[in-house]
Write a structure and sequence with these properties.
mainly alpha, two-stranded antiparallel sheet, 5% strand, globular
């Protein structure tokens, strides 16, 4: 159970956000208010308020940043993107929850077996969704999109994109300290600070040692974050000159070692694929790879339904590396299959919340299925409509950047947009295996989309990277110079 410090941290984060916006540039404060909350606020702890979604480490930072920008900084941000497809997907993402609620108003009944003499069967059920749930779901969907909309508005310039890369590298270096401690002594930091362990300790044991988790939901989430910091460091290294290049080379090597120590096979494979691309391939080649990743992610449910995913071959490759990894992957594939069959019963708008999309024992009501991938969770909860809206919004910047790179707009695109798009694309792939969608992923999509909208509109985005961030027409001091 979370201790009082956990709830105190959640409660004071809006004040921390306000302080950051008072002392940093808008770009830097926005990034750190959301990324910092994800990295350092307690997992699982939340405030349950009536008629609104739970307030936790993902919703509080996003809502705090939006409120500070509007009421304290006097800034405004658009609720809908300029691109017509993006605008449609945003509307469907939020409003598509209404038919989901309206088509799931019936309760789900099952027989709960009571061990008594004589044996009695008591009818158990999951409640149906009602009209009041519409408001809660709509608010939850809107809060989820806040990092996307804020990044689209305030991080779409070359300065904003570079700030995201720099923040990732700095965040990776800071987080490496507690990560290395946990690799050495076992995952304990969340217990020391917030008084509880947030997951199964057995899953943090791997290959005769430990993989770190710190304040994140799982060690796999931390490994994916380290991968993103490694890609960011490699991108900055490629663009750097002089002494800065030497320092960034050392940082890149350090983060690569940390990624190996995280003991996540998938993230290590992503690193092997992406880091050489970022270091040596042309921007167009990098975007082609990102486009392939995005296409696979978006079409994966259809490929699974038509039995076009080579599951046996994938399991055989995993078996050759590690029988334990193959067993884990096979477990996920089996659960995907039964959850797909469940989702097919309401494939358009899904089953809604309360775990109605899961498989339960007909007598005991015990949950028999475990959804791992984000895609199957969204597909079962919101159906095709919700899946297309969410994955479409995340994949759209990849598709648009690929299109613009082939057009005469390529010369206007910031070089920082390319590695950020690669991170977005590889996260889409990882979401087929894990529920690793985080607020920073939405920020990646929003920043790249906003950048491309400005490119399309003809805004001067390729200003020298040494210029300070600008709010309106007045330059803003960026504070002390960093090595990055």
């Amino acid at each position: 159970m979370p201790n009082p410090l956990a709830y105190l941290m959640l409660a004071i984060w809006p004040l921390v956000t306000l302080l950051m916006f008072r002392r940093m540039s808008v770009e830097r404060a926005l990034i750190w208010s959301i990324l910092g909350g994800y990295l350092f606020l307690p997992p699982l702890a939340e405030f349950n308020l009536p008629l609104v979604p739970s307030m936790d480490k993902t919703s509080i930072p996003a809502l705090s940043a939006a409120l500070v920008l509007v009421f304290a900084m006097g800034k405004r941000f658009a609720l809908l993107p300029q691109a017509k497809v993006a605008r449609l997907l945003v509307l469907v993402f939020v409003l598509g929850a209404i038919p989901t609620v309206l088509t799931n108003r019936d309760p789900l009944f099952f027989e709960v077996l009571q061990n008594s003499d004589p044996v009695q069967f008591v009818t158990g059920f999951l409640p149906g969704l009602n009209i009041r749930d519409i408001g809660s779901v709509l608010i939850g969907q809107a809060i989820t999109l806040l990092p996307f909309l804020l990044a689209r508005q305030f991080l779409a310039t070359a300065t904003g994109l570079r700030e995201m890369l720099v923040a990732l590298v700095i965040g990776g270096l800071i987080y490496s300290v507690p990560s290395l401690i946990e690799i050495r002594v076992s995952p304990q930091i969340n217990i020391w600070v917030y008084g509880f362990f947030q997951h199964s300790f057995e899953q943090m044991m791997r290959d005769g040692g430990f993989r770190p988790i710190v304040f994140l939901p799982h060690g796999l989430w931390l490994a994916l974050f380290v991968l993103m910091t490694l890609v960011a460091a490699a991108a900055l290294f490629r663009q750097a000159e002089g002494q800065q290049r030497v320092r960034l080379m050392m940082v890149t090597g350090y983060l690569a070692v940390l990624l190996v120590l995280c003991k996540s096979l998938a993230s290590m494979m992503y690193g092997v694929a992406l880091v050489p691309l970022v270091l040596f391939a042309s921007p167009k080649a990098q975007i082609r790879v990102a486009l392939v990743f995005a296409l696979i992610a978006v079409t994966y449910p259809m490929l699974r339904n038509f039995q076009l995913v080579p599951l046996d071959w994938i399991l055989a490759q995993a078996e050759s590396y590690s029988p334990d990894r193959a067993q884990s992957l096979g477990f996920r594939f089996n659960n995907e299959q039964i959850l797909l069959e469940r989702a097919a019963e309401k494939d358009l708008f899904g089953w809604g919340g309360w775990g109605r999309n899961l498989i339960r024992h007909s007598e005991t009501g015990q949950i028999l299925s475990i959804p791992d991938g984000r895609w199957i969770i969204v597909f079962g909860t919101f159906g095709w409509v919700g899946y297309i809206a969410e994955f479409g919004l995340l994949a759209l910047p990849v598709f648009l950047l690929s299109r613009y790179m082939r057009a005469d707009l390529a010369g206007r695109i910031s070089p920082h947009a390319v590695p950020l798009t690669l991170m977005l694309a590889i996260t889409l792939i990882d979401m087929l295996l894990n529920a690793t969608l985080i607020p920073f992923t939405w920020m990646l999509a929003g920043a790249v989309l906003g950048h491309l909208e400005k490119v399309r509109a003809g805004d001067p985005l390729r200003a020298p990277l040494t210029h300070p961030p600008v709010i309106g027409s007045a330059p803003v001091a960026t504070g002390r110079r960093t090595i990055l």
